[in-house]
Design brief:
The chain is of the alpha+beta class and 130 residues long. The chain has a domain at 3-59 and 92-123. It is 45% helix and 16% strand. The protein is built from 2 helices and 4 strands, in the order H-E-E-E-E-H. The protein has helices spanning 7-28, 94-129, and strands at 38-44, 51-58, 65-67, 86-88. The strands form 2 sheets. A two-stranded antiparallel ribbon has the order 1-2. Helix 1 packs antiparallel against helix 2. The two termini are 17 Å apart.
Length: 130
Amino acid sequence: MTLSALYPPLTAFSAYGAGLQNTAHNLANVLTNNFKAGRVTYSDLPNQAGVQARGPQKSAARGPLVPYEPGLPPLEGQNPAAPAGFVEGSTTDVATEMVNLIITARTYQANTKTVRTTDDMLGQVINLKV
């Protein structure tokens, strides 16, 4: 066993860390009018060498119409089809973001177990040579 066994879980930590940052950004802006939620996608690296993150890609979907509070400055990129007194809300879906958090937590747990097992196995190999 070599240290290359640690590369896939470490790339997964990095990739899912980027996804976690995106989820946090989306949740922080759930009440921000005209906010477009981002999505991170994951893909395998060649030869089972790990995982990489791509994104975030901003949603092209329109947000729900919410009442506009008088006295606030106008929003850039506002939906011109919105009726008077309404603005486009955030495209962040809290339920989707919570599911993403659960998936990320489980991925971290699984990869942590892989790192611990690799560490234990390397420790056993070192003890055999001593």
